[in-house]
Amino acid sequence: MSAEQAPRHYRTLFLSDIHLGTRGCQAELLLDFLRYNDAETIYLVGDIVDGWRLRRMWHWPQLHNDVVQKLLRKGRKGARIVYTPGNHDEFLRDFLGTHFGGIEVVDETIHETADGRRYLVIHGDRFDVVVRHAKWLAYLGDWAYVSALNLNTGLNMVRRRLGLTYWSLSAWAKLKVKNAVNFIGKFEETLAQEAERQGVDGVICGHIHHAADHTDYGTHYINTGDWVESCTAVAEHHDGTFEVIHWAKRGEWARLPKPSTARAAA
Ligand SMILES: [Mn+2]
């Protein structure tokens, strides 16, 4: 297959939980995604840059710059970019209502689909009881999560060398843990209720790193997932329908040049 495919063009793309500035960020996969996918409007639904960890440890490789440049270039070429900060990039909440580099920063907003439905777009941490009421616990959980992710990154480097597809340890572990399932369900229900309270058709959020698209709790609940584990995004097609894109599962990942073969070719 040719490497130079024309990008797929959507009405809207929703991305969240990229966590630039951390080792877990799958910047290479995201760059690949941004190369082959375009939209009129791009929502950055929070936790794009990870400020919690940037304060302690600086991890900012060229690839993370490339992601920022790629997004800014899409803005210059005419895409509207809207950024709703999350808890990891809450420093941006001091800039609500402002524009920088062509990006609009808002706490939450309403997106209207091509067929006239209205969706609340919000990161979602405000509805996470752990982040709201026990920040120390959130920091501790954050540390445990990063440790699991580092292990995951190592595993994936090995799998990549072996030519296997991307696999997510913590996504797998999370799905196995009953408490995590309860936590996910509670979060989804709360967000769906918030959409109902605001009188809109649904909600598009991030935060819990678990992509979803369902109406289990009445209103339409859509979660964009993340780019540290599952590598997912949500697209709105030109007819107003939504799709969760699992980029790592599409096989594009497997077709990227692998370090060993790249070396052999050089
Ligand atoms: Mn978050």
UniProtKB/TrEMBL annotation:
Keywords: Cell inner membrane, Cell membrane, Manganese, Membrane, Metal-binding
InterPro entries: Calcineurin-like_PHP (IPR004843), LpxH-like (IPR043461), Metallo-depent_PP-like (IPR029052)
Parts of the chain that traverse the membrane: none
One Pfam family in the UniProt entry: Metallophos
Record-level Gene Ontology MF annotations: metal ion binding; UDP-2,3-diacylglucosamine hydrolase activity
GO biological process: lipid A biosynthetic process
Residue stretches making up the Calcineurin-like phosphoesterase domain: 11-210
GO-annotated cellular components: membrane
PANTHER family per UniProt: BLL8164 PROTEIN (PTHR34990:SF2), UDP-2,3-DIACYLGLUCOSAMINE HYDROLASE-RELATED (PTHR34990)
This protein's name: UDP-2,3-diacylglucosamine diphosphatase
